[in-house]
Amino acid sequence: MANDSEATLESTPTWAVATVCFILTVISILIEHLLHLLGKYFKRKRRKSLIEALEKIKSELVLLGFTSLLLTVSEKQIANICIPKSVGETLLPCASMTFDIAEEETKCADKGKLSLLSRNGVRELQYFIFYLALYHVISCILTFSLGMAKMRRWEKWETETRTLDYQFSYDPRRFQLTHQTSFGKRHLNYWSNNPVLYWPVCFVRQCYKSVSKVDYFTLRHGFITAHFAEGSNFDFPKYIKRALEKDFEVIVGISWWIWIFSVLYIFFNANAFSSHFWLPFIPLMVFLLVGTKLQSIITDMCLDSHDKSHVVRGTLLVRPSDHFFWFGWPKLLLHLISFILFQNSFQLAFFTWTWIRFGIRSCFHQETENIIIRVAMGVSVQILCAYVTLPLYALVTQMGTSMSKVVFTENVIRGIQIWREKAKRNMTRHSNLSLDISIDSSPSFGHMAVDTVDENKASEQESENQEPKLGSFHGFDTQNRGKPFHS
After folding, report:
1. In the chain, how long is the greatest CA-to-CA distance?
2. What SS3 string covers 278-304?
3. Where are the membrane-spanning stretches (predicted)?
4. pTM for the model
5. Among 221, 224, 304, 403, which has the highest number of CB atoms less than 10 A from its own CB?
6. What is the rounded (10 degree) CA torsion for 219, 223, 229, 235?
């Protein structure tokens, strides 16, 4: 009888195979059912952006599963790819390694070569893909939960906009100097125009009160004034939440260039590069860079308004514009945040995989400092980026030139789309009938065309009476020239 380690399905009891298949099938069905219930919940709550984000997470899991399946199918073919020993012994993750030649790699051993990747190595790589998928899902859930938790504080600030103190502070009949406003006192200081102190102050501010109340009120006032009527009763926090849900689709997605950086992370994890001194710090450095830039955008808007006028009416008014962002592209910061979160999840998954599969004191983690650095960097970057940087981005990115379409609710967008389609059909039909009138010169056909035009006008009037009125949709004010007042 064959050894347990060498046993195949030919020498395994059928009840054992059936039991394992049954348990794995039940677990898979439960996970699929939970995802289905979550999608139904989002659909019932009309959270279209979250539904699309959930579908993107599913597609990423399918991609990782398909990659694992390809490794399973082709593990023997990969193991039979032979490379010279001089090449196979370069860029090892550990300083010294002993090579165990398995039976299936004897083909390469007979030639004095090594396998490109042993069958055991392929199986270990499949374990890593599982941990990566698990950490990616956990990271997405934690990111969205912490971001929404931070924004609940803004809802309390929104209630203050209806108080008398707020109305007095933003009274348009009162004149004051720019540096006397609360926003000016925070950003117009000795360091604002000092290139040596400017960036260090912005760097520190992202870690302490990244979004202050005065910043929130000023950016809110500038956004509403730029896109709506002054004094409009617009629910700004609800709009920010919908915008964040829309941006969450980009965060959960894994772009091709992020995959390239992930592969480079594995490549540079060799002992020759001393990667444990600098590789774990890459997400942290990008995180600090993005947070510093977001803080500098707020200060730049204050300086821009101060340069245009030293005296303001009511309070300082910031003007949204894309030129405050890198390359005039606000979404670039969102892609960098997506890179930070996935690379951080990748590093945590890599650490967990090497810990569980090879032990906590394997060649990957020979020093205690290495373990502390990797764990501390991974946890801190995940929490700070989700709780601090992402909400800050959601607020500051509204100061771009364009306005996100999520400012309208789903009902309003659907009503506008229906109205647009009907208008296009009516215009097309009217242009076709006009062409028929110009071509037909026969009196009989002319009378028929005129009658048809009259019928068309009557049908247009009837359709206009039946078309959705924008004022009937939630979030539109027909008395205020069709400008949204509530989201």
Report:
1. 101
2. CHHHHHHHHHHHHHHHHHHHHHHHHHH
3. 15-39, 125-146, 248-267, 273-291, 332-356, 371-396
4. 0.76
5. 221
6. -80
